[in-house]
Each structure stands twice: as C-alpha cells, then as structure tokens.
C-alpha cells in the first residue's frame, strides 16, 4: 500500500466510524451495496462469481477504480458453484448449475423447503448436532446423506465398534464428495481473500467482516420455511421461542473469534428477513424476533463489534424497538420506511443507512437521481449519523444514473 492509499484508507475508515458514532464527518460516507452491477458494467455475469473467480474479481476491482468515492468495500462474495453441484444443494438454484433456468446475469435464487417438520421441534432442541447429521444434511444436501449413519450406542463403547457409522460405505462416499468439494471451496475462499486484499491495497477498508442471521430468520429461512414458521407463531409458539433461544447461543459462539481479534474493522451484518410490518403482531415481534436477536446484539457490542441491522421490507411499526439500541453502537439500514420518522426515532441512538430507491437508477433520469439524493440527504444529514446506500443491492442501472448518484452525494453531502 502506498503512502497515498494508506492515507485514503484511513480517511475512509474515520469517515465511516464517525458516522457510526453519530458524529458529523467531513461528508456523508458512501457505502452502496453493489450486487451484480460490477459484472453488468464489465461485460461478465454472476455465473463468473460462482465458476470463474478471476474474471469476477477483475470486474469488482474495475468498479472501485471507476467509483473511488466509495468509502468501503461492500460487494457480494464469490460462491462455489462446483461445490454446490457436488453436494446436490437443494436450497439454491444458480446460474451455471446443470439444468438450471436461472439466467447467467441473475444472482443465485433461494428455494425454500421444510427441512425440519413441525413435530421435530423437540428433536432438534434435545440434540441439535444429531438432528443436523441425521435429518438436515440428507434433506438439504442429499449427496452427503451418508453422514446420517453416525449414531453412538452408549451401552457399547468398547473398542472401535461405536465408530462404525463413521466408516460405513455410505459415509466413505460422502467423504469422497467432501474432499472434492474442499478443493473448489478452498479456491473460492482464496479468490475472496485476494479480492479483499486487493481492495484493501487500493485504500478501501471492508464494510463488514462477517454476516449472521436473526434466530427467528434462521428457522424461517433454513428449517421450517416462511409460511410454516409464521403459522408456528400460533400453533407452536413455545417450541418456536425455545428454538430461537437455542440459536442465540450458537450465533453468539460463531462470532467468538472477533472478541480478541486485532482488526481495523469489526462489523457484522444481519439481514432481517421476516420482521417486517405485517408478518407478525407487535407482541410476537417483541417475543420471538426482537428479544432473542437483542441478546445477540448485546453480546456483539460486548465484544466491541458493531452490529449492522439490515431491515428488509416495511419497518414503520418496528421503530420503537430499534430506538432502544445503545447509543452510537449500531447501524440500521432501511429499505422501506418513513425516513423522517426513522431519523427522528432510530437516529437518536443509531447510525441510519440506506433508503435511496435503487430502481430509480434503472428507470429514472440523472436529474431525478440527483434530486432524490438531495432530498434524502436533507432529511438524514443533520446532526450526523447517516451513511448513504440504496434500499437494496444495485443490480441493474443506467451508467449515467449511477454516475449521478455518486456525484450528487459528493455535491450535497459535505458537512464543511
């Protein structure tokens, strides 16, 4: 890193840290979440992000060269299409998968299934690891079903007999697949690390260093799927609450490495999928969604980690819970909200992020983009504590509109 890029890195880092601390930096930080737009602009596709990592990395690097006013490296990570093929992943469909209908320019698509049945709450609560091996893995990654054979009979622990399930023919087949998956997964991890390191050397600090999910969303996304989980709020409320509490400890433990990590950035993003207005009552939101998640938030803050709460959908009725966050310790992204109320209520204690309509970048004009940026800044800038981002990822955009967005923040976002 040159002396100039080191200086640029520190300026960007300080600018964002000041905003998080509810101070007024020199200007509003620009941390737009870029989805597939780097690939669109550079002539490649999201398929490259899953099968051709060098080409995908080139597109991302070129994007940040084109928009050096960005204040952090905020872009999707590469994923291994080959590893997912080998595992027989059922929860995703993706560009490049044999037989897929997903176009190359699309991101991967989530497919929800009930990987856990309603009557299995007791089982997963009694033995989470055993349930994952015997039930979850065969359903979610059927090519690895051989791992389900492992059971220990406590009445016979002599010799190696209890380990027989680990070396059964089906288990050995699963190990062969895992070994093959490991090769491409390692290549993918290396590509992600190289991309992050190159952006770092260019003077762009990472925006976040990890991602987690709200305990309720983990159940709704990966175990029960959306509709059954919403029904469980009524029919299995106690079991659902107990599972949420069980997941709290698992989520917190997954970020234990950050407690003593010597890192310039310690922020973790939590996309909040199912807490939006209308999915549950205020009482259900408080008990099943917010209260367990708040335990995770408090634990991360104790580790000196900044939680980034990425709310999705309408969030007008949830602002009072968000008001209660410790002052200057969290970031809260909004997709659809009364931004004046969000600034007034949530902005008292937390840095607010987002709310610029990404669709305008595709369907609007440069003039409309500039006017919308100015309107948003007029509301969110006063007193500091605001980071510019869109209401979601930037996937499609007219280049002139993208230029107008960045330039408008530079034009109207200065505090001095």
Largest sheet: 6 strands, parallel
Number of DSSP strand runs: 8
Please work out how many helical segments DSSP would assign: 17
- Overall 3D shape: globular
- Termini Cα gap: 29 Å
The helicity comes to: 40-55%
Strand arrangement, major sheet: 3-4-5-6-7-8
Strand content: 5-15%
Query: What would you report as the Rg, rounded to the nearest angstrom?
Result: 23 Å
What is the ordering of alpha helices and beta strands?
Answer: HHHHHEEHHHEHHHEHEHEHEHHEH
Whole-number average pLDDT?
95
Low-confidence segments, given as residue ranges, are none
What is the structural class? alpha/beta
What does this molecule look like?
By secondary structure, the chain is α/β, with parallel strands linked by helices. The protein has a domain of 126 residues. The chain is 49% helix and 7% strand. The chain contains 17 helices and 8 strands. The protein has a 6-stranded parallel sheet with strand order 3-4-5-6-7-8. It has a two-stranded antiparallel sheet with strand order 1-2. Strand 4, helix 12 and strand 5 form a beta-alpha-beta unit. Helix 4 packs parallel to helix 8, helix 9 packs across helix 11 and helix 10 packs across helix 11. The longest helix is centred in the middle third of the chain and has 33 residues. It is globular.
């Amino acid at each position: 890193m040159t002396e100039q890029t080191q200086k640029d890195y520190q300026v960007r880092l300080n600018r964002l840290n000041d905003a998080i601390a509810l101070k007024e930096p020199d200007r509003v930080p620009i941390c737009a979440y870029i989805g597939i737009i780097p690939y669109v602009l550079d002539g490649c596709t999201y398929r490259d992000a899953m099968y051709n990592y060098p080409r995908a990395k080139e597109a991302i690097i070129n994007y940040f060269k084109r928009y050096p006013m960005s204040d952090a490296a905020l872009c999707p990570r590469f994923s291994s299409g080959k590893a997912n093929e080998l595992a027989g992943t059922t929860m995703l469909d993706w560009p490049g998968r044999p037989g897929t209908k997903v176009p190359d320019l699309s991101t991967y698509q989530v497919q929800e299934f009930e990987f856990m049945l309603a009557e299995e709450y007791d089982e997963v609560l009694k033995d989470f690891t055993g349930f994952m091996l015997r039930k979850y893995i065969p359903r979610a990654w059927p090519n690895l079903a051989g791992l389900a054979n492992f059971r220990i009979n406590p009445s016979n622990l002599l010799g190696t007999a209890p380990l027989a399930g680990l070396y059964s023919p089906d288990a050995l087949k699963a190990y062969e697949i895992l070994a093959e998956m490991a090769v491409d997964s390692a290549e993918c991890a290396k590509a992600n690390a190289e991309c992050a390191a190159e952006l770092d050397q260019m003077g762009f600090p990472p925006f976040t260093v990890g991602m987690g999910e709200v305990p309720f969303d983990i159940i709704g996304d990966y175990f029960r799927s959306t509709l059954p989980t919403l029904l469980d709020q009524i029919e299995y409320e106690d079991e659902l609450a107990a599972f949420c509490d069980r997941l709290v400890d698992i989520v917190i433990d997954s970020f234990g490495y950050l407690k003593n990590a010597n890192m310039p950035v310690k922020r973790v993003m939590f996309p909040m999928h199912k807490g939006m207005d209308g999915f549950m009552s205020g009482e259900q939101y408080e008990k099943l969604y917010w209260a367990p998640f708040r335990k995770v938030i408090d634990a991360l803050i104790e580790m000196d980690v900044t939680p980034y709460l990425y709310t999705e959908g309408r969030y007008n009725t949830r602002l009072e819970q968000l008001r209660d966050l410790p002052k200057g310790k969290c970031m809260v992204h909004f997709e659809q909200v009364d931004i004046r109320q969000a600034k007034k209520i949530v902005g008292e204690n937390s840095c607010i992020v987002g709310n610029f309509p990404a669709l305008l970048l595709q369907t609007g004009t440069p003039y409309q983009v500039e006017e919308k940026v100015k309107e948003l800044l007029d509301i969110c800038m006063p007193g500091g504590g605001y980071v510019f981002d869109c209401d979601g990822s930037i996937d499609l955009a007219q280049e002139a509109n993208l230029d107008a967005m960045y330039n408008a923040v530079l034009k109207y976002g200065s505090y001095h």
